[in-house]
Amino acid sequence: MERLAFIGFENKSAITEKYAGAAQLCFDPPCENAAQCFEFSAAFIKSGAPCGVLQSWLLNEHPRLAADENALFAEVDAFLGIPRPLEIERKFLIERPAEASFSSVPHAAVDIAQAYVEKNGERFRLRKRGCGESFVYIKTQKEKLSDMVRIEREERVGREYYERGIRGARLLKKRRVLFFYNDKCFEADIFPFWRDTALLEIELLSEDEKFALPPFLNVIKEVTADKRFRNSALAALYGAPQA
Fold this sequence. Notes:
Blueprint: E1 3-7, H1 12-19, E2 24-27, H2 34-37, E3 42-46, H3 51-57, E4 63-66, H4 69-80, E5 86-95, E6 107-119, E7 122-131, E8 134-144, E9 149-157, H5 159-165, E10 170-181, E11 184-190, E12 197-204, E13 219-222, H6 231-238, E14 240-241
Parallel strand pairs: 1-2, 1-3, 3-4
Antiparallel strand pairs: 5-9, 5-12, 5-13, 6-7, 6-10, 7-8, 8-9, 10-11, 10-14, 11-12
């Protein structure tokens, strides 16, 4: 069962009534280090929380901000796949940002290594995600519905499963900077093989959701529909073969 963290919300009874049985709910848990943050598969934070709180929870896999109950329930439903487990994502090619580019917003960085695996008629992604000595391992299966929308199913797996699974595959490494801007979580992926460019991603609640791109990043163009910028394509081109 998913473990969800809720930070700064007073409507605990309404949250519990709606999601009890669907996930393990934890209210205002500590997040003093990466290991504590990784205990939860998603973190939902009340808009306006102190910068330090935002920054600490940005290490989580799915940090989301919500200004009110309706916004919170929409974000939790999307994460839990109610009514369908959809990933709605847009992607942009940007100029490679300097670390100082994110100084005006809450941000945090994690290291990611991932491979695309085909076994027993299944195709899936295995990912190692974390920082320092703290990592989680995630198996993800996706089914494309359109250039922007996919059915996505994720589950955490053990380190041994990950290490066995990536044998014979190509391993793609990147540094991901997560940051909040205008109450949305953006992810900037910085790759060791690109000197001048990077990728910026944002997950949305609907295909027509409006959002503002952060002005402190230089966007070159949208590449949501461009297959060349899919992580699977980058792994095939730049990934290191695993023995």
